[in-house]
Design brief:
With 200 residues, this protein is mainly alpha-helical. It has one domain (2-139, 161-166). 31% of the residues lie in helices and 5% in strands. It is globular, with a radius of gyration of 20 Å.
Length: 200
């Protein structure tokens, strides 16, 4: 079995190998950069002047956008991780879990002739229990829940593993501004559940 090395796919590959006992080869592209700068986030991280093992530019593909009409016709850099760990290594350690439809689509793509067969290995209902067990979850601080309306659902979690998912003990100053702007536009946030509900 061959799996592209996105963090989400790594968890799925690990789950599938436990069921089928097949060997899994994870394919990644880029350097194995274990610099502390990869995991350092927060308002003071830029001031710490970390010495990286590799030049920071090696962590990204050299991709630029088309010229953008609403940005004075200028292109912009497109940040996409080119390092072991992919974009998860360069996006501030963001943890993401897709919607049920994302995983069920893999089953649907096989066609009706194979749907039942693939549903036993893939599909949201089969993968969700592995997601729950794969991570040790830490809720956000109470002050952040109050100030930013952060929510969480403990039923979506349940593991006690060395892989931890948590909320940063801070928020960037622009976060409050963005939330206020969205609210003025009539865009309401959704409660986090991480149980497969599609967010729109």
């Amino acid at each position: 079995m061959y799996v592209l090395g996105f963090n989400r796919f790594n968890r799925i590959a690990n789950h599938n190998s436990l069921i089928t006992l097949d060997a899994v080869l994870v394919v990644e592209y880029g350097y194995l950069d274990s610099s502390f700068a990869i995991t350092a986030t927060g308002p003071d991280s830029d001031a710490m002047n970390f010495q990286s093992e590799f030049y920071e530019g090696t962590r990204f593909y050299n991709i630029t956008s088309e010229r953008l009409v609403h940005l004075n016709g200028e292109p912009r850099d497109v940040y996409c991780g080119c390092v072991v760990g992919g974009s998860s290594a360069v996006n501030g350690m963001l943890f993401d879990r897709g919607s049920a439809e994302d995983y069920d689509a893999w089953v649907w793509a096989t066609g009706e002739a194979h749907e039942a067969e693939y549903a036993t290995e893939w599909g949201w209902k089969n993968i969700f229990p592995a997601f729950r067990k794969s991570v040790t979850f830490h809720p956000p601080l109470e002050k952040l829940q109050e100030e930013y309306g952060m929510t969480y659902d403990m039923d979506a979690w349940g593991g006690t593993t060395p892989v931890h998912a948590s909320f940063a003990p801070f928020q960037w100053p622009t976060t409050g501004m963005m939330l206020e702007s969205l609210s003025r536009l009539g865009i309401r946030g959704q409660d986090a559940d991480n149980r497969g509900r599609r967010h729109v």
